[in-house]
Amino acid sequence: MRFSIDPAASDPPFEQVRRQVTDAVRSGELVPGARMPTVRALAAELDLAVNTVAKAYRALESDHIIETRGRAGSFVSATGDPTEQQAQLAASAYADRIARLGLSPEVGLTIVRAALRADG
User: Fold this and answer.
1) Are residues 55 and 5 in the same domain?
2) Distance (Å, rounded) from C-alpha 68 to C-alpha 117?
3) Do 58 and 84 lie in a common domain?
4) What is the pTM of this model?
5) I need a labelling partner for 19 at 20 to 30 A (CA). Which of 12, 55, 69, 101 fits?
6) What is the distance between the alpha carbons of residues 83 and 100, in angstroms, rounded to a whole number?
7) 32 and 50 share one domain
8) What does the alpha-carbon distance between residue 85 and residue 94 come to, in Å, rounded to a whole number?
């Protein structure tokens, strides 16, 4: 996910970051469990002050869009009811495992579809 700042926009930079992350989560471009860039890395990428990105991350955390796990970093939060949250986290872990195994997303979907048919 690439973020950008429009210096001519009426929204302040922290709000632009907050909105772009929120939109990416809602569209599915950022999935639950996805690791967010560090505040410092994103600030450097966008040529913003660290405090500006930190303010955006605090707002996102307050809105339960992301969660910060101390030194481990910030991650996209699971959303919805608790059962759906668990499914989102399981799907994210599965997608990570498929990627680490070097399999394509299409193969991963074929495997999970077969597993769902077998269990249903």
Assistant:
1) yes
2) 36
3) no
4) 0.71
5) 69
6) 26
7) yes
8) 14
